[in-house]
Every structure is written in C-alpha cells, then in structure tokens.
Amino acid sequence: MLSEFQETLLQSVKAYQSTQLVKNKYENILQHLDSGIMLFDSDGVLTFINVQMARLLEIPRHSLIGCNLLQLLRHPHLSRFKKRKILRLYRETILFRKKNHELVDEYGRYYLTTITYGDQMEGDYLLSVKDVSEFKQIEQAAYQNDKLAMLGKISASIAHEIRNPLTAIRGFIQLLRPHLLQLGKDEYARIILSEIDRANDIIYEFLNSSKPTAPQKVVVSIASLLKEAVLLSESEALMKGCEIRLKESATPMNVSIDVKQVKQVLLNMIKNAMDAIEEVGSDYSGVIDISAEPDGKYVNITIQDNGNGMDKAMLGRLFDPFFTTKEKGTGLGLSVSYRIIKNHRGNINVDSVKGSGTIFVISLPLVP
C-alpha cells in the first residue's frame, strides 16, 4: 500500500516537473519573440510582459507586472509621448472595438498592434506589437514606383501636345520682336520667350521624372566628380552667403556612372541645401559639408547643411513628384534624382530635423 502511494507520488512529481519544463520552454520562447507581448487578466491586471515589449516601453519588466492600465499610465519612467500612444491605442481597440491599429513612435518607426480577447482568451486580453517599419518602406517604395509609372503614362500622352503649340508661339514671338522693338516693348518679347523656355524646362523635367534616359556609363573618380560639382556651385553659394566645404577622402574611389545625370543629382542636392540655408535668413552663416567615404561595395556621398531642416511629414513626401515647398519650384528635382540614382543601382537616404539642418546620403556601387 505504501509503495503504491510512493509510486503515485513520484509520478505526480515527474508530471509536475515535466509540465514546468514545458511551461518554462514556452515562456522562454514568448520572452524572446521579436514582437512585444502584454497579457492582462479579466480584472485588467498585467500578468505577463515579454522582453521586447519592456524594451519598447523603455521600462524594466519587474516594475510592470501586477500593474493595471491606470498604474501603467502613471509609471514615473513612462514618457509623455508613450502615454498618449497607449491612451489612443486603448480608445481604438477597446472603446471602438478595432482589433488592429497602426502607430508611429517618436523615432519614426511603424508598429502594428493587435489585441485579442473574448471566449478564446477566457476573459484575458492579449496585446501584441510588431515592428513593421521594413514592410512599410517596401510598401512606400512600391507606392512611389506606381506613382512614377502613372506619371510616365501621363507625360507620354501630353508632352507633344504642349510642346508643339509652345514651339509655334515662340516662333511667332521672334517674328514679332522687331516690331515690338520699334514700339519700345522689346521687354515684353523677352519675358514671353523666357517664360516659354521655362515651360519647356518644366516639361523636360516632367518627362525625365517618369523615365530618365538610360545611363551612358563611364568610370570616373569620385574626388574629381565632387570637385567639379563644388566648382559649379561655388559662385551661387557665395552670393547666398553659404560656404561649401569639401572633405577629400584618403581612399581613391571610382564609380561607373552617367556623369551628366549624377552631376545633375549632386547640383540639385547642393542647390536644395543653399535654399534651405536661405530660408533661415540673409544674415545666417550657412555651411554645406560634402564628403565621400567607402561603405563595403558602395561609396556614400554625404551632403549636409545647417539650414532650416524638415519635419517628419515633409520627409515622408520628399521624393513625391510635384511635392514642393518652394514658391517657384516644380516638385520634380528630387523625384528625378531618386530615379537617376535607382537606375545606377544606388540609393538616396535623407535625415533632417526641423531647425537643425538636413543630411542627404547618396550611395553608389564602387568599381573594384
């Protein structure tokens, strides 16, 4: 009788140990998921939080277990930004019954939040948060390509329809110019011709933004390319009160590019930097730093200014066709630049803070 009891007890202990091992195993898996997880019981008390979620909240895990939502919001280490996000998440998912919600943190990263509750959770509430920034970038790139493809179709259909009458108007104005000169109105003809030329330039940019010509590549030195771009920009920079500083790299670097196209991109970036500095004020001492450094199989060309900078909303639309904040801008310069660098198997990254300047980084493949 005693031996049977001991055997039963031993089996129970083994079963308990086995259950604990399985529990510890699955808890360890949950702890190290790349998604953040929080579990609230039916009374709204936090019973489980994994490492990733604690990292996202920037609060130690041990200080959160046992808190309800109100205590969590009053936590001394929780930032005001995150408090607002948690309240909005509560409103969207609990009050408005939305199972999924997308939010952006203070660092500009995108997160998809999902809440699960009901009969399958036996009264508990499971909140999961996944970083979807990379998927968002892919989505935005696809959206950008769709817009450029649509722009190409529009441009192909209207370019000739606009250019033909402009050419005719330009020809007739030139024929009338001697008569206007006799009347002392030659200034009118000059203005009309310059505006027609500007319209033609806009159409040219419009066409190039959707489909730039195929790159005619030659191997060139990055150092000579940057020196030439700076040389072409120096006089305008001086007139606008800007200083262009070129930092030469000790490493010789060559790239295979269409020199005309990439030079157009560099000049466009430098001009944008000058315009951003000009926005600050005429007495402001503007500086544009240009450098190039190798990064694996690529070279990173950095153009940094101390101008007006941009907010996150503007950064998100920077490469959109026709998006511009300039009074006389077409909104096509950066769109064209983006497509040119992509055609060279490169990339453009930008980082900016409102009031603190902007950094553009152009990455191009190096020639071995």
UniProtKB/TrEMBL annotation:
Keyword line: ATP-binding, Kinase, Nucleotide-binding, Phosphoprotein, Transferase, Two-component regulatory system
EC number(s) stated in the UniProt entry for this protein: 2.7.13.3
Domain PAS: 22-76
Gene3D superfamilies the UniProt entry points to: 1.10.287.130, Histidine kinase-like ATPase, C-terminal domain, PAS domain
Histidine kinase domain segment(s): 157-368
Top-level EC class as recorded in UniProt: transferase
Keyword Kinase: yes
Reaction(s) the record says it catalyses: ATP + protein L-histidine = ADP + protein N-phospho-L-histidine
GO molecular function: ATP binding
Domain of life (superkingdom): Bacteria
One Pfam family recorded for the sequence: HisKA
Protein's recorded name: histidine kinase
